Amino acid sequence: MENLLKGKIALVTGGTKGIGKAIADKLARDGAQVVVTARTKPDEEIAHYFIAGDLTKPQTAQFIAEEILEKFGKVDIVINNAGANTSPGGGYSTLSDEDWSNEIELNLMSAVRVNKALIPSLISQNEGVIINISTGAAVQPLWKMTMSYSASKAALNAYTKALASELGSQGVRVNAVSPGMVKTPLMESFIADIAEKGGISFDAAFKSIKNEIGDLPLSRMGEPEEVASLVSFLVSPEAKYITGANYRIDGGAMAIL
After folding, report:
1. Which of 49, 149, 241, 247 is catalytic?
2. In the chain, what is the greatest distance between 2 CA atoms, to the nearest angstrom?
3. By C-alpha distance, which of 146, 143, 153 is closest to 107?
4. CATH H-level superfamily of 9-181+223-249
5. Burial, 210: exposed, middle or buried (Cβ in 10 Å; 0-12, 13-18, 19+)?
6. pLDDT tier at 238 (50, 70, 90 boundaries)?
7. Is 190 a residue whose pLDDT tops 90?
8. Is 149 a catalytic residue?
């Protein structure tokens, strides 16, 4: 895959840590010029072009798009990775209107707005790839932990399929990637919070989540780099006949095809 993306401009939102950073680094190794966004610039050095922006604010996507097009003249690959489960667990009664709104803004509307701002550029080239990073929880929601998050990502999945249908004839491919439990700072913090609230160990909390899921044949969390490898393939010319798909990368967590 080395240099397979040479000459391509790629945007990775939420690209400074976790899965987003792994994707950004992988696309750069494949030859792409990578742009990453986050709300604030991290203290450590970033190897990619950085744009600060809070994508829960409606105007941010347009600002980011304008800077990319001014700086690089085009964009070829859009990875909508920004997202998180920010709401409290406990089920419907613990979730406020604000919790629901926050999840939808971060996990759905951030991608919708970024895509809307950059799709005209992709169409003008008659070529481009959009990957929306979703989650296995969108099709296997855990009411105690992910109700509003799962709902927002399920909406992202439906949007992905619809967008792929709309843009396919114009040369733009759109797919979703749905990680399961991946070893990121956010996931580890999520598990640690469950452990603290339950008065149990981290390993016991991880096991409790596995039990809620029902099964995890590979018996471990995934690595961010494993997700990045899948994304790298999907944005490459090797995947040029793939669009409108949702690829789960979850260690076999769901007992369905």
Report:
1. 149
2. 56
3. 153
4. NAD(P)-binding Rossmann-like Domain (3.40.50.720)
5. middle
6. very high
7. no
8. yes
